[in-house]
Amino acid sequence: MKSLDILTELAQLGNRIDPKGAVSFPIYHSATYAHPELGKSTGFDYSRTANPTRSVLENAIAGLERGCKGLAFASGMAAITTVLSLFKQGDHLIVTEDLYGGTFRLFEQIYKEFGITATYVDTSNNDLITQAILPNTKAIFCETPTNPIMRIADIEAISKIARAHSLLTIIDNTFLTPFLQRPLELGADIVIHSATKFLGGHNDVVAGLVATNRQDLADRLTFLQNALGSILGPQDCWLLLRGIKTLGLRMERQQQNSIVIASWLTNHPLIDEVFYPGLPHHHGHEIQLNQASGPGAIISFALQNKDDVPKVLKNIKLISFAESLGGVESLITYPFIQTHADIPLERREKLGINERVLRLSVGIESIQDLLDDLAQALKK
Fold first, then answer.
1. Is position 100 annotated as part of the catalytic site?
2. 347 is an active site residue
3. Is 189 a catalytic residue?
């Protein structure tokens, strides 16, 4: 049988697996499983170690990311925490400088105390990455596009740099998902998702996913997942599987809406700058076209005047002022005091995450309704 289109892969997740023929794979709420006899197992013993519903989800993300192993966690941060547990005291990582504030907090306030250090660089600049490599560097940890300034890193080029120096390449693929971008095919070793976002897609489940294409990393991450225990429960695994089935349809619509909105914002008199990889003038636009099949559905923009931020957030009626992203409902966020509050003020200002920047997660609503809401919220 010829390989399937990814839309077909997504729609068929969990189907033809249950021995009783359930099209929607069942939820196994059991915490433990009986052994047939001494020394024999059904493959499931205790649900922290493995659960049938979770296994279907984990196999799904491994397949979609073209990896050999997938793992499901209680949140995106639990996924990142487990990946960082691959490293030990004295290890050094090169990390995207304008990354999600929660990931920065994890590096600076937790793993730094364990003796694992990080150098933050603009990972859209390969020369800066190379210059940051130290004798004890073990990995490059990269977001692309970055949150919220939407810088684009060249995954293939970074992976080549990493291999030349015997480093791991770890890519946070939350913004684009395997529907638009597959870092493992570009040379990365590990892919991380906050599956709460586009993969879940309905703002009703908190989850994290990891995929790798290396068996040695798969074995170690499986050990860490079981040892640390921050696994995703079966009910949430089922919700996530259900959400992923419509990932392609949702992202196609969200991206279509985003391209229109980004162009509209670019021409608005109150907007100073728009950050969106789908715009031809966006720095990294060409790299994005080469390594992904689309620009995604996250737009950040800077207002001319910071005093207009409270007015916009108060006046929006259809779009919700809320943290998170990737759901069918459009959300707008103020990174300066929300998602990136843990990053020191001076660093935020240097990175362009200032008091004028808003981040818009575009949903599947009518494009005209979204434009109308933005237009009335941005009135002088």
1. yes
2. no
3. no
